[in-house]
Amino acid sequence: MATDPRDAQLGRSNVEDTPELEAFYKELAGVNSDAFWNRANAIEPWEPETRYRPTIWRYDQMRDLCIRAIDLVSPEKAGRRVITLMNDSEAGRENTAVCGWLFSGLQAMKPGEITPAHRHTASAHRFIMEGGGAYTVVDGHRITLGKHDYVLTPNGCWHDHGVAADGQLSIWQDGLDIPLMNVMESNFYAVYDKPAQTAKYPENDLPLSYGAGLKPETRGEWDQGFSPVMVYRWDDVQDALHKMAKVNDACPHDGHMLRYSNPLTGGWAMKTMGANMQMLPKGFTGKAHRHTGNVVYNVAGGSGYSVIGGERFDWGEHDIFCVPSWMWHEHVNTGDEPAYLFSFNDFPVMEAFGTRITETKEEAGGYQQI
Ligand code: GTQ
Q1: Measuring from atom 7 of ligand 1, which residue has the nearest CA?
Q2: Is the pLDDT of residue 366 over 80?
Q3: What is the mean pLDDT of residues 132-143?
Q4: What's the burial of 207, exposed, middle or buried (CB within 10 Å: 0-12/13-18/19+)?
Q5: Atom of ligand 1 lying closest to residue 104 CA
Q6: Beta partners for 44?
Q7: Res 161: pLDDT
Q8: Res. 363 pLDDT band, cuts 50 70 90
């Protein structure tokens, strides 16, 4: 029976049970079928109905737990010594999701440790929260990692990570599309035949070749489906944000925002997950908007709050929070400095499927497809 008044109209299911129909449904169930109209209104919601909840992880708590994990288990034993961020919902626990199609975890490594080399169909990317001397090796390319750098591990690439013996305790946030790979039943995994890869190229060869956003003409063509930059350095990103802010008005929803893009295409750096860095100027009070797709934020600096689905979440540096699909959200900077929000998302999937849809409060009722 219709519970939403909008369902009481032609074009929606409005069938009342009768003894004849109930008998018919039993017969259908016996041959692995059902009457579509019994499920239609549930499986075709008027608008997206997320099963995920806005959730926040406080860095002062999560950091302590990461450090305790270091004493409790080795990365060799664990495969990856990661504290998984579980969305505060049934769906999150069921799918091991931070939000929607996205997985996220905090990986902590102390000097001299390595995460054994492996690969998978899931793509990964990482945002470095603290440390020194950390590195990753991706298909033989050794990449150094500094605070607030953003680094890619695209699907199918061999990867191992470590912290140099003279480095510092390092903690980063991993983002993967594991829930998407599992729902698509296309998740493969393999371990490398050695604990770690030997670098095949000069250190940082890819960011040094492609990181300026200019196309190297005297190097072979890049034929991979992901950004050749591989790591995006925080100093460059912060500088770009401030230059942009000098000559542009802040967007009412997102302040000043940059995409970690593939410079050869202008598109997202990987096929399934994207990432942004935004700056909310001092005093910024964002207006609400909503969109399909899931977003996980990591506060790269400053303090403020976000209202997500009507609930207020106050945040400070390195707190992590998520915005589930189609939930209204707005960001406010309450500090004396600019606030920086790193975020990653599943927008490339939405775009590939033609379902990246966004709405502002002003556009009441309709939606705008982008
Ligand atoms: O390094 O590829 O946090 O496979 C979880 C699973 C990181 C990784 C995680 C992974 C990785």
Answers
A1: 174
A2: no
A3: 98
A4: buried
A5: 3
A6: none
A7: 96
A8: confident
- CA torsion sign, 37 to 42 to 46 to 48? negative
| Cα 276 from Cα 140, distance rounded (Å) | 26
Cβ–ligand 1 contact at 80 (below 6 Å): yes
- Digit-coded pLDDT (tens) for 298-332: 999 999 999 999 999 999 999 999 999 999 999 99
- How many angstroms separate the Cα of 239 from the Cα of each of 244, 319, 329, 349? 9, 23, 27, 29
Cβ of 177 closer than 6 Å to ligand 1, yes or no, is no
Binding site membership of 105 for ligand 1 (Cβ less than 6 Å): yes
Domain definitions of the chain by residue range:
5-43, 56-369
C-beta of residue 75 within 8 angstroms of C-beta of residue 105:
no
Q: Looking at the domain 56-369, which fold is it?
A: Jelly Rolls (2.60.120)
Q: Cα separation of 291 and 48, whole Å?
A: 10
The mean pLDDT value for 9-37 works out to: 97
- Bridge partners (DSSP) listed for residue 83: 106
pLDDT over 50 (residue 368)? no
Ligand 1 center–CA 278 separation, angstroms: 25
Q: What is the pLDDT of residue 365?
A: 57
Burial track 249-278 (b if 16+ CB lie within 10 A, e otherwise): ebeebbbbbbebbbbeeebbbbbbbbbbbb
